[in-house]
Give the backbone structure.
Amino acid sequence: MQQARILIIEDNPANMELMSYLLSSFGYTVLIAHNGEEGITTAKREMLDLIICDVHLPIVDGYAVAKYLKKDPVLRQIPLVAVTALAMVGDRDKVLSAGFDGYIDKPIVPEKFVGQIEEFIKNK
């Protein structure tokens, strides 16, 4: 079975490195984008199984990424998961109502992260 192809859209190098490392070590193919614009371009070009996206990004933020992806008939089928430090009351609902299919808070817990991501892949 071919492992899933996962796009990570994240501007923080340490977070990107950690998420990439964890997913790669479990055999997933990881593609990276450092801002929302690059993320949208990569999503349009590649066949993806999942997109992980920070909310606070340079150039195009995560909300705009979600809006764009969910308007596209092909891209809307790809599960989109927010991985964000937004932790105020109501932030989770705001993220989900913006078009994200799921929400994982930062800092991520390395022991749980891959399992959390796999839930979105198997439900695809």
